[in-house]
Design brief:
By secondary structure, this protein is mainly α. It is 89% helix and 0% strand. The chain has one domain (6-169).
Length: 171
């Protein structure tokens, strides 16, 4: 004996089977895309981490150069005498400052970043060049003043000797 609603039962089974297969395919697709997305996210996060590490290394390098420049500027202001050894040391210090400043400018040219901190580094680097030029100019001026002073002292001594000789002859 066949049931009266046999066609309805088969149709319901087929409908259930199609919905079940659709849901299985949908769940497998969701799991697949979840893992695909997570792998893509990990790759993007790794790229961001590498970029952040590169920026940290660049900033550390620039900080070290600025520290070296600051140390050399402090050492440069310690010289007060006008002898050849100090002149050579000052020239070497100014050269170290210019080399470190050039290294900073090269790094900033090499890695142009649209970050405000890098704009600040550029401005500081330009100001370091100006400050070094001013220090050099002040040193040169101080040397010229010291040279003129020693020449005046020598001339004054020669004049005093001449005056004393002239007074001795005419008395």
């Amino acid at each position: 004996m066949r049931p009266v609603n046999n066609n309805d039962i088969y149709r319901a089974y087929r409908k259930f089977l199609l919905f079940f297969l659709f849901l299985v395919v949908l769940s497998i697709g969701a799991v697949y895309f979840f893992f695909l997305t997570s792998n893509r996210e990990v790759a993007l996060l790794n790229a961001k981490a590498r970029e952040a590490d590169r920026l940290v290394a660049l900033r550390s390098d620039i900080y070290n150069d600025f520290d070296q420049i600051m140390l050399r500027m402090q050492q440069l202001s310690e010289y007060t005498k006008m002898n050849s050894e100090e002149i050579n040391n000052q020239t070497l210090l100014l050269n170290d400052i210019q080399v470190a400043n050039q290294h900073i400018q090269d790094r900033l040219q090499q890695d142009p970043m649209p970050l405000k901190s890098f704009d600040l580094y550029r401005k500081l680097s330009n100001n370091v060049g100006t400050a070094a030029a001013i220090k050099d100019s002040l040193f040169t001026t101080r040397f010229q003043i010291e040279s003129a002073r020693s020449q005046l002292e020598s001339c004054n001594k020669t004049n005093k000797n001449a005056i004393s000789r002239l007074k001795g002859r005419y008395r």
